Amino acid sequence: MRTRAVLTDEDIESMAAAAIAHARANAWPVTIAIVDEGGHALFLRRLDGAGAASAEMALAKARTAAMGRRESKVYEEVIRQGRTAFLSAPFTGMLEGGVPVIVNGDVIGAVGVSGVKSDQDAAVARAGIAALGIEPGAA
């Protein structure tokens, strides 16, 4: 029988704290979402000054990264390169800022961030994942 890692309450708290600290250190008003491998919300925090829409977008980016098994920016790049058929994919957060949590090749969740420039959103997500001592990145 094969076993795989899962996100624990402690993992979620560690990732959230690290992501919040990174956002605050840069004075970035963002919303941070953490989801499990199926895209189900485990954590959502809208920091002071983050726009209301950023809550929906952060969740969408996290869900896209978890269920798509890769960073959400991959989809953004595919569409930008002209493959507009990807707009019919069942994901709504196809912008940079969603990063999967990968352990031993398995995507066990994702962090999605929205509120500032896309690369800054992704930096906050990566800072959260790095708190687990794993390298964030695409599968």
UniProtKB/TrEMBL annotation:
The protein's matches in Pfam families, at most eight in alphabetical order, are given as: HbpS-like
In terms of Gene3D superfamilies, this protein maps to: Haem-degrading domain (3.30.450.150)
Signal sequence, start to end: none
Q: Which SUPFAM superfamilies match?
A: GlcG-like
Q: Specify the domain of life of the species encoding this protein.
A: Bacteria
Name this polypeptide is given: Glc operon protein GlcG
Q: Which organism is it from?
A: Paraburkholderia acidisoli
